[in-house]
Amino acid sequence: MEKEIAYQISEIAKQSGVSLRTIRFYQQKGLIVPSLRTSGGMSLYSQKDVNRVKLIRRLKDSGMSLNRILDILNADGEEDRKARAEHTLKVLKLEVENAASLIAELERQSRERKEIISMVSQCLNCNIEVCPQECPPRNHLIY
Fold it and tell me: DSSP letters along 51-116, please?
């Protein structure tokens, strides 16, 4: 049986592409727990821990909150790998749906703002005292 490699915090940070501060923050939030401790109390990490930090970073980069990521990672308590994977997929699909809804709302807001820009732009050169009856901004927005 091959002995597992143990990494110090600086090594796990380098391999996963995050800072030492981020690793410590993830520890405080319960996202990662060192696999081992030396007799002197120094934290050591396994390759599984490195992979976990990489996953956390990717999920965070995709816009997920740390609470949502913790929900995914807590699926580790599930009894088998398939159940963990199913739980993770369920959460990720929900996140995609939420992102699509947010995009649709932002697009609606953008269209509304463009309409308001158009209306206000018409008022830019309008002389309210002599504005003709047929002028679209007859119900002037800007006085």
Answer: HHHHHHHHHHHTT--HHHHHHHHGGGGSSSHHHHHHHHHHHHHHHHHHHHHHHHHHHHHHHHHHHH
Q: How far apart are CA 108 and CA 73, in angstroms?
A: 34
pLDDT at 138: 55
pTM here is: 0.69
Reading the block at residue 18, the tokens are 């995050």
Bridge partners of 37?
43
Question: What is the spatial distance between Cα 30 and Cα 35, in angstroms, rounded to a whole number?
Answer: 13
pLDDT tens per residue across span 68-122: 898 888 775 556 888 888 888 888 899 899 999 999 999 999 999 998 888 777 7
Place of tokens 């992979």: 51
